[in-house]
Design a protein that fits this description.
The protein has about 160 residues and is mainly α. The chain contains seven helices and two strands. Helix 5 crosses helix 6.
């Protein structure tokens, strides 16, 4: 993916993810690094989107940081300082975000496209966590609608079908 197609906020998130991986002595930028960077942006939309989806951004951020702490670290003479690679998962996120931008007929890949790609990943722990939270939120919303519908049907005469 061409980095010049990323919006400034998306480029900032990638740089923050890279810095986060370097601070933790990790050789690759993983999806967790990118998600932490997106959620940590000042004035960014990622935390608001996650909150609107029914998840707690602070809790998600904490879990992601715990996952980063558990990732392997590279140290010693064989480790090249400042050399960080993009993992295959993050490459897949970038490709999916770019496809999402094209599908939406957007010229640039934005933070929103990256979030959609992170949430839509097939095997990613982040996407599983977001999908399970979103599905439970959708399920409870459907239950509330169903309950409201059944209450309104009781008030309607029997001749009307609900």
């Amino acid at each position: 993916m061409d980095v010049n197609r990323l919006t400034e906020k998306a480029q900032d998130a990638v740089r923050q993810a890279q810095a986060l991986a370097q601070r933790h002595g990790q050789q690759q930028i993983e999806a967790e690094h990118l998600a932490v960077a997106l959620l940590s942006q000042d004035g960014g939309v990622a935390a608001r989107v996650v909150e609107k989806a029914g998840a707690a951004p602070a809790t998600l951020l904490q879990r992601l940081q715990q996952a980063i702490e558990k990732m392997p670290r590279v140290s010693g003479g064989g480790a090249q300082a400042g050399q960080v690679y993009i993992s295959s998962r993050v490459n897949e996120v970038f490709n999916n975000a770019e496809a999402e931008a094209q599908r939406m007929k957007d010229e640039f890949v934005s933070v929103e496209h990256l979030l959609l790609a992170l949430a839509g990943g097939s095997t990613d722990a982040i996407s599983r966590r977001w999908r399970s939270r979103a599905s439970s939120t959708r399920s409870s919303a459907a239950t509330r609608r169903s309950a409201a519908s059944s209450r309104s049907c009781r008030a309607v005469p029997r001749t009307t079908r609900c």
